[in-house]
């Protein structure tokens, strides 16, 4: 059974940083791509970033390019989302999710939410002065 657990959310001032973690169990990261998503109140869930199962391909939504960085530690079975220069509009519940299985794939998408089938419970990120 695939399980994903997010952590690392919190309250931060504009311009600050947070690092979110997505700890996975029941699978290895070389078989499943991981995506980060967010949902603000009253808005649809949107893709933020993804990393393919090979680790060789990453993508970001335009609004976070240059500010967010996705990475992973295979030994710890954890995917991270480093968020720098946070803005008020980054406030949302952040989720990680898994697509696949596709061993060592170089494909991932932040636009096609339907390929993601296993989701974490989310972690709240609030950017406020």
Reading the helices and strands in chain order gives EEEEEEEEEEE
According to DSSP, the number of beta strands is 11
| Low-confidence region ranges | none
Globally, the shape reads globular
Helical content stands at: under 10%
Explain what this protein looks like in three dimensions.
The chain is mainly β and 129 residues long. The protein has no helices and eleven strands. The protein has strands spanning 3-7, 10-12, 18-25, 34-39, 46-51, 58-60, 68-73, 78-83, 92-98, 118-119, 123-127. Strands 2, 4, 5, 6, 9, 10 and 11 form a seven-stranded mixed sheet that branches. It has a four-stranded antiparallel sheet with strand order 1-3-8-7, with no helix packed on it. The model has no long low-confidence stretch (mean pLDDT 96).
Write out key terms for the chains shown.
129 residues; seven-stranded mixed sheet; globular
Describe this structure in a few short sentences:
The chain is an all-beta fold and 129 residues long.
Question: Secondary-structure blueprint of this entry?
Answer:
Blueprint: E1 3-7, E2 10-12, E3 18-25, E4 34-39, E5 46-51, E6 58-60, E7 68-73, E8 78-83, E9 92-98, E10 118-119, E11 123-127
